[in-house]
Specification:
By secondary structure, this protein is α+β, with helices and mostly antiparallel strands. The protein is built from 16 helices and 16 strands.
């Protein structure tokens, strides 16, 4: 079987490629103009052309897939009998298949003296490349390393590469390329793409690439397992995306089709936002970006103080994780001594008299880099700072947030803001503090005097006590 391919998709012959390979993992492999084409990622790295075939148009043999072995262990047969994934396959079904794959491959490798051949058979039985592309972002790709035929992955997506590096172990570009069946240039491009998104991937010379600390990819099953059964039963949905414009925007787009207590999370956001349209920085694999939809039969008037109640709900989640030291800044910030720890955005829709719905967005800083602190434009803090560099597992932290949200929003629906006033007062960061409140009409100076029963900020001024219930103001220390 022959196919015509262009020069831009050719790979250098192995001896020449070795001579040009750069030992510095932080530099792209030196492959001249041949590595500049995006088509190179589609080439099969397991077969290298001799120099004599580097012509403007060449013919390249297309190797047939490796035949399966005559017999296979029961685990392999079970995997082969499993339904093949497709674009219509549910994420839960794909996840179940993915969980089975590494175990079956491991058993096959031990069972046979030719594990690569068995891996090829199982790879084909599992649906091949279609199966690999259907894996969820959190799937531990490292479990499959070296177990599929060279070139079977074709490309390594950013979320897959981050999952491989999540342990904090240094991995060389050559090893990553060999195990994924792609070129070092393709690995380097994805490393740079992650760096551009704010992931602090370090270069350790010949040792390769690594993260400065271990992290965990968000996994739906891990989060569900950590939820109390009563909370899990109430969830309308629990979704984890690798990349999305905004978790809150995603829930809003679904409108009436979204169920009560639908949760959407993402590893990274391209258009995350905070109060008054401010941009929320969302690098992947480091923090938690979460939105929750809550429906209310009552109207907007019954939701007075909701954003302040969400602040209390976030603190409850932190306390459940054993983390203290955070306080609340009116109207919707969670602070620590060194800066902003979490942000809250509540957006309402529906009828004024009811029913209505609230989309609650929360951004919680788990780990921050120095570069991110500089970009923020204000003092910011993270859970790593509050825990002496040992923040909780991100899935555990996400589960604590989900639990606190479901329980707290149900309490708010039943009892209103009155159920949260005392707790808010206990952690009020502005009480007794000289403040300047700025709005379109000018500045107002005074001393913070807590909040009222509706959640309005109380400011003791020279003219007396003044209530501020508009969120379109800026509150700073005087």
């Amino acid at each position: 079987m022959l196919r015509r391919v262009g020069l831009s998709s050719m790979l250098l012959p192995e001896p020449l490629e070795w001579l040009l390979d750069d030992e510095d993992e932080d530099e792209p492999p030196l492959r001249g103009t041949l590595s500049a084409s995006p088509l190179e990622e589609e080439a099969d790295a397991s077969w290298l052309l001799p120099c004599s075939l580097l012509l403007p148009l060449c013919v390249q043999p297309e190797f047939p897939p490796m035949p399966p072995v005559a017999t296979a262990p029961p685990e392999a047969a079970a995997l082969a009998a499993a339904p093949r994934p497709s674009r219509q396959t549910s994420s839960n079904e794909v996840a179940r298949m993915a969980i089975k794959a590494p175990k079956a491959l491991s058993l096959a490798a031990r069972w046979s003296q030719k594990p690569r051949r068995d891996a090829s058979a199982l790879y084909a039985a599992a649906g091949g490349l279609e199966f690999m592309n259907a894996l969820p972002p959190s799937f531990p790709l490292a479990a499959l390393s070296g177990r599929f035929p060279p070139g079977s992955l074709k490309t390594m997506q950013p979320h897959q590469l981050l999952a491989v590096l999540a342990s904090g172990e240094a991995l060389s570009g050559s090893r990553l390329a060999a195990e994924a069946g792609i070129t070092r240039a393709a690995i380097w491009k994805q490393i740079e793409a992650l760096r551009q998104r704010g992931v602090p991937i370090e270069s350790a010379g010949a040792a390769g690439y690594r993260l400065p600390w271990p992290t965990q990819m968000l996994e739906e099953q891990a989060i569900r397992t950590a939820l109390p059964q009563a909370v899990a039963r109430r969830l309308g949905a629990l979704e984890i995306h690798w990349e999305i414009d905004s978790t809150s925007s995603e829930l809003q787009r679904r409108g009436s089709g979204a169920f009560d207590f639908s949760i959407v999370m993402a590893e990274t956001q391209t258009a995350g936002r905070g109060r008054r349209g401010r941009r929320w920085l969302s690098p992947p694999g480091m923090n938690i970006y979460l939105s929750c939809l809550k429906r209310f039969e009552a109207g907007f008037a019954s939701l007075s103080g909701l954003s302040l109640a969400i602040g209390v709900i976030v603190l409850r989640a932190l306390h459940a994780l054993g983390i203290d030291g955070a306080r609340l800044k009116w109207p919707n910030d969670v602070l620590a001594d060194s800066g902003k720890l979490a942000g809250i955005l509540v957006e309402l829709s529906g009828e004024y008299q009811g029913p209505c719905a609230a989309v609650v967005g929360i951004g919680l800083n788990v780990r921050l880099t120095d570069a991110l602190r500089e970009q923020a434009g204000q003092p910011i803090c993270d859970l790593a700072t509050l825990t002496q560099g040992m923040p909780p597992d991100r899935n555990r932290a996400a589960a604590a947030l989900v639990t606190s949200l479901v329980e707290g929003l149900a309490q708010f629906e039943r009892d209103g803001f009155a159920a949260f006033v005392e707790e808010y007062a206990q952690y009020d960061a502005l009480r007794g503090v000289p403040l300047r409140v700025s709005s379109a009409s000018g500045d107002l100076d005074g001393v913070g005097a807590g909040i009222d029963a509706r959640g309005a900020l109380q400011l003791q001024t020279a003219a007396g006590l003044c209530g501020i219930d508009s969120a379109d103001v800026t509150v700073r220390r005087a």
